[in-house]
Design a protein that fits this description.
About 50% of the residues lie in helices and about 5% in strands. By secondary structure, the protein is mainly alpha-helical. The protein has a two-stranded antiparallel sheet with strand order 1-2. The two termini are about 30 Å apart.
């Protein structure tokens, strides 16, 4: 993650790219969910970033609304990004594209943007879903239960969430030492 954020900090749209990546890595959002976000979803009327926001059923892959909880690190990234954007109407795209400023990125164009960022940062075989996988695996490594992970991910079944989790050698060694 450090390597990626260092590279992103040097890009033309550094604050935007950082906010997009952190929405996947620190909140577990899918690229389509990030693309669907509007300013009114993440900002209060007074312009402050919400500590939590709601994804509507129409915004999610599974067609189930869910609450997204915003960490302090993600909140700071969103505040930094917002400070550099002039047009923040509640219904305007959170991440407008260059071609259609008000319409914003499509899920596909945002996925391509993330793929390019990962590749340029020297991270091979990463995709737009890498942040989501990393989010869930990192929380599991810290002892967060799979039922909580499933809720954060918006999964109906914990078996779906389990597919995201990777048992790292560090986690396996720590588990053995618990015995």
């Amino acid at each position: 993650m450090t390597q990626l954020l260092e590279y992103v900090g040097q890009t033309r749209y550094a604050a935007r790219n950082r906010a997009i990546l952190l929405l996947t890595h620190l909140a577990g959002l899918r690229v389509g969910e990030v693309a669907a976000l509007r300013w009114g979803d993440v900002l209060n009327a007074d312009g402050k970033v919400r500590s939590e926001f709601r994804l509507t059923a129409a915004m999610t892959k599974g067609g189930r609304a869910r609450t997204v909880y915003v960490s302090q690190k993600l909140m700071q990234a969103l505040l930094t990004y917002a400070a550099g954007v002039a047009y923040k109407a509640p219904n305007a795209a959170l991440f407008p594209s260059q071609k259609q400023r008000r319409a914003g990125f499509t899920a596909n164009s945002l996925a391509q943007t993330l793929k390019r960022l990962y590749a340029a940062a020297g991270i091979d075989q990463a995709s737009s879903h890498s942040g989501r996988r990393s989010f869930l695996t990192n929380l599991a490594d810290k002892g967060v239960g799979i039922h909580v992970l499933a809720q954060l991910a918006g999964h109906r079944r914990i078996s779906t969430t389990a597919q995201y989790l990777y048992a790292s050698p560090k986690l396996l060694a720590r588990a053995v030492n618990l015995a």
